[in-house]
Automatic annotation (TrEMBL):
Residues 241-253 have a biased composition (Low complexity). Residues 283-292 have a biased composition (Basic residues). It comes from Chlamydomonas schloesseri. Residues 254-265 have a biased composition (Gly residues). The keyword Signal applies. Residues 1-19 form the signal peptide. Residues 237-292 are annotated as: Disordered. This is Uncharacterized protein. Keywords: Membrane, Signal, Transmembrane, Transmembrane helix. The keyword Transport does not apply. The chain crosses the membrane at residues 50-73, 93-119, 192-209.
Length: 292
């Protein structure tokens, strides 16, 4: 499931990012020969490199998950896979450390895509403002003067920091060129959301990959620890079972301590309180009274 999500979201990110960059490049070509954006080629190269690297690491982590499944089956059948568990733990740890670096780069790439979207929205707004000024004035002049004199009905590319253009071609007044550039920049702006969603969910899927490998690592470490302790002869701290209490229950048929069942013999003679005892009888008492 994670591998399927990886393929889907990396495809979404590549599609929308490439479409956005293609539209921006077309808009720059329309605005004038020699017009280019700063670090545009570097962004294009980073998209290609990140896509390949992310997919390779996704395949590697998927392979580690399959390997862990086979190790679990082998442990259930054989019971002793200590050496293989150690090798798996080393591979798991190495991949997770490298994956942290990839995820850090994904955060930077997400920030870069957001900044690129802001620049695209900014140039779209500037072109729209110039076209509105031309519609308000009722036309546009053919700018032939020196650079600083660029009217409000023309787009001044020299004032845009992230666009490189020759100074003598930085003032664009042609309405058809501006309308065509606006079409491309608007399409690029509409693709920003898809690009950001794709790279964001790539980061989320990467977090799930990392947590899955961490769970496998913890389980593998527990299995290895238990196997080592069992190999030494049993769990540490274990021993003979604790003996039961020596106090036994009263025997059946024999009353315990209490009334009528004291510590002595139950058949012993016990005179009744206030009753006749040894040497005292009814007849003897009456004879003494008569004698008296």
């Amino acid at each position: 499931m994670l591998m399927l999500g990886t393929i889907i979201f990396i495809s979404i990110w590549i599609h929308y990012t490439q479409a956005m960059m293609s539209d921006v490049n077309a808009a720059l070509d329309v605005l004038g020969d020699g017009t280019a954006a700063d670090n545009f080629n570097r962004l294009s190269q980073s998209v290609t490199a990140t896509s390949i690297l992310y997919f390779i690491y996704g395949a590697v982590m998927y392979g580690l998950c399959l390997w862990w499944t086979l190790l679990e089956l082998e442990a259930d059948q054989i019971g002793q896979v200590k050496d293989k568990l150690q090798l798996y733990m080393m591979a798991n740890l190495g991949v997770r450390v490298c994956w942290w670096a990839v995820m850090t780069w994904m955060v930077l790439l997400l920030a870069g895509a957001a900044i690129f979207g802001v620049y695209t929205s900014n140039i779209t707004y500037m072109i729209t403002t110039v076209l509105n000024n031309q519609a308000m004035v009722g036309g546009y002049p053919e700018h032939l003067g020196p650079y600083p004199e660029c009217p409000a009905t023309c787009l001044d590319l020299w004032r845009i920091d992230y666009i490189d253009t020759p100074m003598n071609m930085s003032c664009v007044c042609n309405r058809e060129a501006l309308l065509s550039a606006l079409t491309f920049t608007t399409r690029a702006k509409n693709n920003i959301a898809g690009s950001l969603v794709g790279v964001f969910f790539m980061y989320i899927i990467g977090g799930y990959w990392r947590s899955e490998l961490a769970r496998h690592y913890a389980t593998c470490r527990t299995m290895q620890d238990v196997s080592g302790r069992l190999a030494k002869g049993g769990l540490e701290g274990g021993g003979a079972p604790v003996a039961a209490s020596g106090r036994s229950a009263p025997a059946r048929g024999r009353p315990g301590g209490g009334r009528g069942g004291g510590g002595g013999d139950s058949d012993a003679y016990r005179p009744l309180a206030g009753g006749p005892g040894p040497g005292r009888g009814i007849g003897r008492g009456r004879g003494r009274r008569e004698a008296g």
